Amino acid sequence: MALREHEFEAETEIIVHEGQEVCEGQLLAKALGRNAVNVHAPVPGIIRKQLSVQSTNGFVSRAIVISLVGKFNLAGYPAENKFWRTLNRNEILYILQDRGIIRTATGQALHRLVADHQQAASLLVNVLDMEVFSGFEASILNQYTAEVVKACAMLLQASTMTEVIFAVNAQAGDCRRLHAEAQANKLPYRIEYFSPRYPHFFPNQVAEALTGHKSGLSALFVEPSTLVATYQAINSNIPYLNQFVFLGGNALKQPSLLKVRLGTPIGKLIEECGGFVGTPDTIAVNNPLVNGYIEDLDMPVTKTTRALWLLTRPETRQSQQEVCMRCGNCIKACPERLNPYFMNTFIMAGQASLVTAQLERCSGCAACSYVCSSRIPLSVHFKQQQKAGATHEN
Questions:
Q1: Each residue of 31-58: pLDDT tens digit?
Q2: What is the CATH number of the domain that holds 158?
Q3: Residue 314 host element (H or E)
Q4: Is the peptide bond before 199 cis (omega within 30 degrees of 0)?
Q5: 143 with 187, same domain?
Q6: Which DSSP helix (H) or strand (E) runs through 104?
């Protein structure tokens, strides 16, 4: 069970020891800093050891190994039905903090995001997937519509936000159930439809589409997967124990959307989907255009593991890097209207300081790298320079 969700998250204090027996949902590590979240035992068992693991996000994290022993006391039992409408703002935020709820797209503590967005006018439920072609969030919204709608009402109750905006793919299908649930719960809402275009999921892209300006929308962004965990925490007092993970790619026998326990090894998920049908050229985590690749199938599922892609060589489009042809495809593809060609030229010449403003605006969507005819890893160069700049500032 990994203890951190992203590289810059504050450390947690481990409050269990080797040989100790723990219950399902018991607190394992307590958040110490502003950006840290509590970590709970996803299964009952015995603490075997503490170690460091390579996370699916590419950094090293402390982890706790639990051997499954004993009885599940949360799974399979009727959920506690709290009268959540009687809770005040501070009580709701405390539950989110205590139960370790995060925004799944970013790994940020949800209670902190809600507190920091007290002046926001809207809660925007982003159903536009980060993971290309997965339909991840739309599937969760369709399966857990009632929970998502009630969680929206909970977050409105904990803030000054006055409406909910559902940002939905125009090709996602019928939204009648969403309309029915929202109206039954008297939720102030509207549904905005977006054409399927990459990368339309970024907040500034959504804001520009709705208002005409990248910074014109005062809203807190969350996803259906985040809202399901929010509902379970506030309504049923259940910590963040489960994770929705989509598995796809032509090297996988049966693409599936699974609900699994945190800490489950990646290899177990692949087995559940029928295993390999060939040798994957790459196993990518979350967005295959942006995120890193994994080689160890024992890596644990974390709160930000949203998708796994078992890709064949034709899918990865591996080829030798060539000299830039100055075709301009990267410029046409950039949603931020940057000039990746000039940015990369200055970076390669050791003059990255001349394109600092452009690097700050770069969203890291990797559209420029994908369309590059010369297979130049533009987004990799930009990300490395952004990281080097952040390290230098710190």
A1: 887 778 999 999 999 999 998 887 766 6
A2: 3.40.50.11540
A3: helix 313-316
A4: yes
A5: yes
A6: none
